[in-house]
Every structure is written in structure tokens, then in C-alpha cells.
From TrEMBL:
Pathway(s) it belongs to: Amino-acid biosynthesis; L-leucine biosynthesis; L-leucine from 3-methyl-2-oxobutanoate: step 4/4; Amino-acid biosynthesis; L-valine biosynthesis; L-valine from pyruvate: step 4/4; Amino-acid biosynthesis; L-isoleucine biosynthesis; L-isoleucine from 2-oxobutanoate: step 4/4; Amino-acid biosynthesis; L-methionine biosynthesis via salvage pathway; L-methionine from S-methyl-5-thio-alpha-D-ribose 1-phosphate: step 6/6
Gene Ontology molecular function: any one: L-isoleucine-2-oxoglutarate transaminase activity
Name of the top EC class for this enzyme: transferase
Reaction(s) catalysed (UniProt annotation): a 2-oxocarboxylate + L-methionine = 4-methylsulfanyl-2-oxobutanoate + an L-alpha-amino acid; L-valine + 2-oxoglutarate = 3-methyl-2-oxobutanoate + L-glutamate; L-leucine + 2-oxoglutarate = 4-methyl-2-oxopentanoate + L-glutamate; L-isoleucine + 2-oxoglutarate = (S)-3-methyl-2-oxopentanoate + L-glutamate
Family: Belongs to the class-IV pyridoxal-phosphate-dependent aminotransferase family.
Taxonomic superkingdom: Eukaryota
Stated name of the protein: Branched-chain-amino-acid aminotransferase
Keywords recorded for this protein, A-Z: Amino-acid biosynthesis, Aminotransferase, Branched-chain amino acid biosynthesis, Pyridoxal phosphate, Transferase
GO BP, one annotated term: L-valine biosynthetic process
Designated gene of the protein: NCAS0J02240
Cellular component, GO annotation: mitochondrion
Length: 375
């Protein structure tokens, strides 16, 4: 019987001299890394090997490893936060583990006990807890990755794999910080399609999106608003889930809309959190919260009628990102913002709700877990 992933078998090799955390203003997203990494090897015959926390360093892989040739690779994006009372917490890590296992199963890589990996990530962060930055908008980005390492040029189920976790102290994902972005509604390239893997966090989903993003950037847009099908359904925005707020001029009732989980969009943890919080906290007499298809033409039409109230993207990296303008068919769809501010009122409220929970100012069920203490 192959061995399961077991946190109790952890081996730790600490660095000789710990690094110092850079000042917040020098933290560029994903460019600075902590002193240690977690690695766990897997084989089809032996199962999961001993987890190892060791100094951050290069991986050694055979050039024929299937990850290089056939994209046997998946990853997750998570964050740890430093609270005001100097505790380190993780935000809804169980959700990331569920999604990571779904991604693994889809591309024939080994699954694992998510609670064991959460425990191991906690041990990893414990080693480098001094490198979790302090302050709103700053956190420790956690990148668990699973790759197939079988050395072969044949296309088949990998019989060897490597799970590794690296961490990066980060500031705001966008250099502009919490500022509204311009999007290009994109129908000339397709991010995902029914029956595909758009709902899985595979590296293969990301590389093909870079060229359309560069093309949009040449036209002055920060991200793509991905459309699908002849109806031009809105799916995602860049690497985030998309939300729109409409207001019925006749009834005055508002509607928060995001695309349904139909297999073409990522099952975002921040998306799920926002839907939960809005359904709990918004007055149902004034609001509807719906997961439904919404087309770019509907957004354009509602904008002309004054019924488009606001829009924003959500994701682990950016958390909440306000949208101020969408380019479509040579015209600009303007999204209202609060006077003198960079977001609409719900966008601002949602960002505050989520941040309060992430930074330990407010408790919400079991959404946060304390994994280290700096006291």
C-alpha cells in the first residue's frame, strides 16, 4: 500500500543565517522569497515520501521530465496575514486544498490529504514567520505547486511527482494599489470552453492568456475581460472572477451578478467569500445576489440606461480590484466610481469586509486559522 501524505514525518533543515524582511515599499509581487521551501516527492509504488523543509534553492529535474513536455503542472495561490496582535493566520486554506486536489485528479497527478498539507505549510511559515510583512495590503503569498517528474517522452500517467511550496512577502498585486482598472472586452481569444479545464488551476491555462493581455496593454488596458460564445458571455477578468452591480431604475433594487460555476471559470476562494458575505449582510429587500450568465451587451445596454452601478474583480492575489472602464467594439463603457475615490460603494465595502477577516480584526466562522505566533 502506498504511503499517504503525513505531516508527522516532516524533516527540517534550517538555514544557517535567516534573512531580513525588506521594507514594504521594496516588496514587488512574487520577486522576493522566504528562506525555506517545502518539498515532498511521490512515486506510484511508494506513495508520498518524507516532507522536507529546507533552504530555498534550485530544483534538479531530468530534461525529459513530463512537466516540461506535456504540462503536468498545477498550482494554488494562498496568503498568510500578520494580525495586529502579531499572530500569523491563513485565510480559508481548506478551500485551496479542495481545488488543488480537483486540479491534480484532472491531469492524473496524485491527490493528498489537504489537512496534512495545511499543517506542513504552517510549519514552513513558522520557520520564516519573521518574513510575513505587516500592514494592510501586505501579506505572505503562498505558492503550492505539483508537477509530474517522470523522465519519459511518452505521453502517459506520471509515476513520479513533486509537490513543493514556496512563499513570497508581497504588497499590492497591482503597482497602482487599490485603484480602478481599465479592461478590454476580449472576444478574439478564448480563455476556456465547456468541457475544458478553465475551472482548474493549471499553468497551461495562463501562458496562452499573456499575448492577449499584452495586446490589450498596447491599447491602454490593464487586463482582458474574457468573453465566451456567440452571446459574448462574461466569464472572468484577467486572472480574477468578475462582479457587476446593476440597479433597476423602476424598482430601485440592486443586483450583484457573477458568472456561474459551469466549468469555464475558476472556483475562486475570494469569489465564494464575497458571495457568502453579500448574501449574509446585504438587505434582501434592496439586493439580489445572483450567479448567472451576463453578456457584455447587457452591461453596455445597462450603462446607457444608467443602470450599471459598479464592477470589480476578485482573486487571492489582488483580493478586490475596482473596474472603471471597459473597451468594447471601439467604445468605452464607463463604470461609475464614488466621487473622488477609486471604487464604487459595494466594492469598497466588500474589500473592507474581506480585509477585516483576513487581518484578524473580525472573526467569521472557521475562515481563518492561526498558524504561528510572533509574541
Amino acid at each position: 500500500m502506498s504511503a499517504p501524505l503525513d505531516a508527522s514525518r516532516l524533516e527540517i533543515t534550517p538555514v544557517a543565517t535567516p534573512s531580513k524582511l525588506r521594507p514594504n515599499d521594496e516588496l514587488v509581487f512574487g520577486k522576493t522569497f522566504t528562506d525555506h521551501m517545502l518539498t515532498i516527492e511521490w512515486t506510484s509504488t511508494e506513495g508520498w515520501g518524507n516532507p522536507q523543509i529546507k533552504p530555498y534553492g534550485n530544483l534538479s529535474l531530468d530534461p525529459s521530465s513530463v512537466v516540461f513536455h506535456y504540462a503536468f503542472e498545477l498550482f494554488e495561490g494562498m496568503k498568510a496575514y500578520r494580525t495586529e496582535d502579531d499572530k500569523i493566520t491563513m485565510f480559508r486554506p481548506d478551500m485551496n486544498m479542495i481545488r488543488m486536489n480537483k486540479s491534480a485528479a484532472r491531469i492524473c497527478l496524485p491527490t493528498f490529504d489537504g489537512e496534512q498539507l495545511i499543517e506542513l505549510i504552517g510549519k514552513l511559515i513558522e520557520q520564516d514567520k519573521h518574513m510575513v510583512p505587516q500592514g494592510q495590503g501586505y501579506s505572505l503569498y503562498i505558492r503550492p505547486t505539483l508537477i509530474g517528474t517522470t523522465p519519459t517522452l511518452g505521453v502517459s500517467t506520471p509515476d513520479r511527482a513533486l509537490l513543493f511550496v514556496i512563499c513570497s512577502p508581497v504588497g499590492p498585486y497591482y503597482k497602482t494599489g487599490f485603484k480602478a482598472v481599465r479592461l478590454e472586452a476580449t472576444d478574439y481569444a478564448t480563455r476556456a470552453w465547456p468541457g475544458g479545464v478553465g475551472d482548474k488551476k493549471l499553468g497551461a491555462n495562463y501562458a496562452p492568456c499573456v499575448l492577449p493581455q499584452l495586446q490589450a496593454a498596447e491599447r491602454g488596458y490593464q487586463q482582458n475581460l474574457w468573453l465566451f460564445g456567440p452571446e459574448h458571455n462574461i466569464t472572468e477578468v484577467g486572472t480574477m472572477n468578475a462582479f457587476f452591480v446593476f440597479k433597476d431604475n423602476k424598482t430601485g433594487k440592486k443586483e450583484l451578478v457573477t458568472a456561474p460555476l459551469d466549468g469555464t471559470i475558476l472556483e475562486g476562494v475570494t469569489r465564494d467569500s464575497i458571495l457568502h458575505l453579500c448574501r449574509e449582510r446585504l438587505d434582501s429587500n434592496e439586493w439580489e445576489v445572483n450567479e448567472r450568465y451576463c453578456t457584455i451587451d447587457e452591461v453596455a445596454e445597462k450603462s446607457k440606461k444608467g443602470e450599471l452601478v459598479e464592477a470589480f474583480g476578485s482573486g487571492t492575489a489582488a483580493v478586490v480590484s475596482p473596474i472603471k472602464e471597459i473597451g468594447w467594439k471601439g467604445e468605452e463603457i464607463n463604470v461609475p466610481l464614488l466621487p473622488g475615490e477609486q471604487s464604487g460603494p459595494l466594492t469598497k465595502q466588500v474589500a473592507e469586509w474581506v480585509a477585516a477577516i483576513q487581518y484578524g480584526k473580525e472573526k467569521h466562522g472557521n475562515w481563518t486559522r492561526v498558524i504561528a505566533d510572533l509574541n
